[in-house]
Design a protein that fits this description.
- It contains 8 helices and 7 strands, in the order ααβαβαββαβαααββ.
- The radius of gyration is 17 Å and the shape is globular.
- The chain has a 7-stranded mixed sheet, sandwiched between helices.
- The model has no long low-confidence stretch (mean pLDDT 92).
- α1 (2-17) packs across α4, α1 packs across α6 and α2 (20-31) crosses α3.
- With 225 residues, it is of the alpha/beta class.
- The structure holds S-adenosylmethionine.
- S-adenosylmethionine is lined by residues 2, 13, 46-48, 51-52, 68-70, 73, 94-96, 111-113, 116-117.
Amino acid sequence: MFAGIARRYDLLNHLLSGNADKRWRRLVARTLESSLVEGARVLDVACGTGDLSRVLARAGAASVIGLDFCRPMLEIARRKAADDNRAVLFIEGDALRLPFADESFDVVTIAFGLRNLAGVEEGLRELLRILKPGGRAAVLEFSSPVVPGFRALFRFYFTRLLPRIGGWVSGSRGAYSYLPDSVSRFPDQERLAALMREAGFEEVGYRNLTGGIAALHTGTRARRM
Ligand SMILES: C[S@@+](CC[C@H](N)C(=O)[O-])C[C@H]1O[C@@H](n2cnc3c(N)ncnc32)[C@H](O)[C@@H]1O
């Protein structure tokens, strides 16, 4: 599905979100700012066309790896990053079986990726596994709007208009019907925070973005005593 929409993916992200997606990714970098220091190793899981990976690299992390299992997405990510003065390494891999040793990254991020994994809990445990003690995770994902009137309006847009526009521009109606369907099945803010705690993350918190259309969850891996 992602291979089929790769070419129009960025355009549709910006168009369908009114460019809010750019702000949300910049906020991930700002939230993790104190961890994005020169020596930090950063992994962006389900990186897609690499926008968050590149924002993290620009924010100061010297070593950023973007991982995705969809080759056409990665090819676009590599092309876009070719002119950046901060290199990002884009590699093919499965988020549920990350090709890295335990405790090898200072920061791990996943943006609009967790919802697409075959298992959310397994995905969270895998993110925790590769984090060093004291390392930080950030999960950016669609969530549940918190303002009642706005929620109804957004629901109409998300379930009725977005699939039509997305289908028309990308040529894949299925992918843009899958989007609201998958969001409706995905845990809301509180439930996702609970799942992160159950997976073993500490200091779990979240912030609603644009009225809860999306949420940014963060957590850390416990330090050794
Ligand atoms: C909606 S896109 C998000 C891309 C990017 N993170 C962003 O913020 O735009 C979801 C991405 O997750 C990837 N993906 C889904 N399941 C995956 C898995 N098991 N392993 C690696 N990547 C996966 C897809 O290939 C796709 O590129």
